Target: Response regulator
Amino acid sequence: MRILIVDDERPARAKLRHLLEQEAGISAIAEACDGIDAMQQIAAFAPDALFLDIQMPEVSGLELAASLPAPAPLIVFATAFDQYALKAFDANAIDYLLKPYDQARLRRALQRLRERLLARSAQPLPPFAGEHALRQLLVTERGVTRVIRVDQIGWIETADNYVVLHTAGEQPLMRQTLAGLLDKLGPGFVRCHRRAAVQLAWIERVEALDKGDCELVLRDGARVPCSRQYRAAVIALL
Model:
């Protein structure tokens, strides 16, 4: 099992690493000091599981959990605060370790991880949508069907039961959900807001705003909102 420890406090990371090193079946351990560092390490280290603190600067553990790309590593929250337990399990956490915990309590969490990993490995993986990502979309408006090249779409936003495809010169409407369209478009697009997604290749810079939010400035000058919930995932993919 490959484990990534995510905690902004060095002593807490060191203690957990020491406890993990005494357990069998763990092949590699890595550490991240915050949510943004964690997203970069997830891409490079490919952990099976995260031991994740909740209260961290910039991006909280709950926000990081919500922004993990699929298939996501399993999550065990390890925190000194018990008031987040319900939210943690809403985020599909495998376990919730309340600091300070001992070796026996950690061992139970590891057993739950092993059982879930075993169950996951027994299930066939779904086909990856990116293998059949679309190169063009057919958009019908007022009886006219047009071909929209996917590489010409800078970003997408929701509009009631439609999505707006923002290209360099026009913004056609398409009757489709944002989540459904992203499944078809593949990994070149990433969600950056609950109402928006952006094509990664179009991003020129990221400008920070208040409260952890930011704006993504695209190559055509468009400014796309990026909420703190998705910021770490977007930056890690750039």
About this structure: The CA atoms of residues 77 and 191 lie 24 Å apart. Confidence is low (pLDDT under 50) at residues 125-131.
